[in-house]
Amino acid sequence: MLDSLLTVLLLGATMSAIYALIALGFTMVFGVGGVLNLAHGGLIMVGAYTYLVVSRSGALDWLPGAGPEVASLLVAALVAALVSYVLYVGLVRYIEENVVITFLATVIVALLLTEVALYQFGSQPNTLRAIWGGATNLESVGTRVLHMHVLGFVVSWVIIGGLWYYVKRTDEGRSILAASMSERGAQLTGVSLQKVKSRTWLIAGAFAGIAGVFLGATTQPASPNMWLNPLALAFIIVVIGGIGSIKGSVVAAYLIGYLEAFTIEVIGASYQGILSLVVLVAVLLVLPEGLYGREFVHE
């Protein structure tokens, strides 16, 4: 009983940390531009496969210790961020006024990325090389803690803390917050919406890439369809937390992450997602705008 409880706690912490990264990027893009970016899922996969290719190439093996894996993680985040940025400046900014067309365009991009991955890597899942391998055995309670899970949790909270500082303490970050509350108000204060949106897509892409690496190295091997379930859960998290709310996304990510861990460990992996849907319906019935929802004004 105790070992099951600890497994839920440890697995839930890891899953929640990864879901928080995915949901933060997803909600930032929607909060600033009102775009429901389904290609965000494809960026998770881009990050995972970039890490796979770079870490296996041996090009960075001259670095000491975990240097090759850390550098591969940074490359994965950079590539996912650039793909996200190019997607916005090359396509979305020209069609974002039409919500339906933009939504369909991001779906098509996600499917194209999936097809490219299938062509290049096949459908065989690939477990990513751990940045921090090994585990610590907790013999007294009959369980062990994988170091990669601990690292994922720490990295997630470092990023969340950095994002909080960025949007609260810097002019560039505050411009993102202003644009998410009122585009017209932000423009009246001299904020360039195009620059804010481009920056937001860049940041969201980096978060997705990092999440993809930790997802592929901990709970779910890298595969062309690895993004489907995490993106669906990220959507549930964003709605529960309140669309556009960073705090809401983090809180909801931990709620859903622990629900998923409980389902996998106690009920069965085949029932994964059911409890999350139940919570989503319950929250929408009581709080239609989510736990920390606020009304955005895009004028």
Automatic annotation (TrEMBL):
Give the membrane topology.
Multi-pass membrane protein
User: Which GO biological process categories is it annotated with?
Assistant: amino acid transport
- Keywords, comma-separated and alphabetical: Amino-acid transport, Cell membrane, Membrane, Transmembrane, Transmembrane helix, Transport
Report the GO molecular function annotations: transmembrane transporter activity
Which lineage ranks, top first, belong to the organism behind this chain? Answer: Archaea, Methanobacteriati, Methanobacteriota, Stenosarchaea group, Halobacteria
Which family does the similarity line name?
A: Belongs to the binding-protein-dependent transport system permease family. LivHM subfamily.
Q: Where in the cell is it found?
A: Cell membrane
The lineage's top-level taxon is: Archaea
Q: Which species does the entry assign this protein to?
A: Haloterrigena alkaliphila
This chain's protein is named Branched-chain amino acid ABC transporter permease
Coiled coil ranges: none
Question: Where is it mostly found?
Answer: membrane
The record's listing under CDD domains reads: TM_PBP1_LivH_like
User: Which is a Gene Ontology cellular component entry for this protein?
Assistant: plasma membrane
Question: Any transmembrane segments, and where?
Answer: 6-27, 34-52, 72-92, 99-119, 146-167, 201-219, 231-256, 268-287
One Pfam family, short name please? Answer: BPD_transp_2
